[in-house]
What does this fold into?
Amino acid sequence: MILYFLMKKLVTDTSGEEVRRVTEILKVQKIKHVVRTVRSRGSIGTAMDSRTYARANLAMYKGASMPNYVYMVYVNRGDFENARDLVYGD
It folds into this structure.
């Protein structure tokens, strides 16, 4: 189990490309990090969508946008300032 209260959130984004950029910078600098992924629709909303599409006899998400995910990157509190400077160039 990862103790998120011991870590500090560095980035929250819906872009997988941006999260990849950030995690690559952290890997090169050997800063330990954790990426947490959450579906923005949730499990109940996804189940409702599945039932609706099944009743209408449509392929899942046909003509709809792909499911949205929210990515959160956490780093240790002691590494936060350094990581922020590396990622954002401040």
Notes: DSSP finds three helices and three strands in the chain. Residues 4-41+67-88 form a domain with the Alpha-Beta Plaits fold (CATH 3.30.70.1370). The mean pLDDT is 81. The CA atoms of residues 10 and 81 lie 9 Å apart.
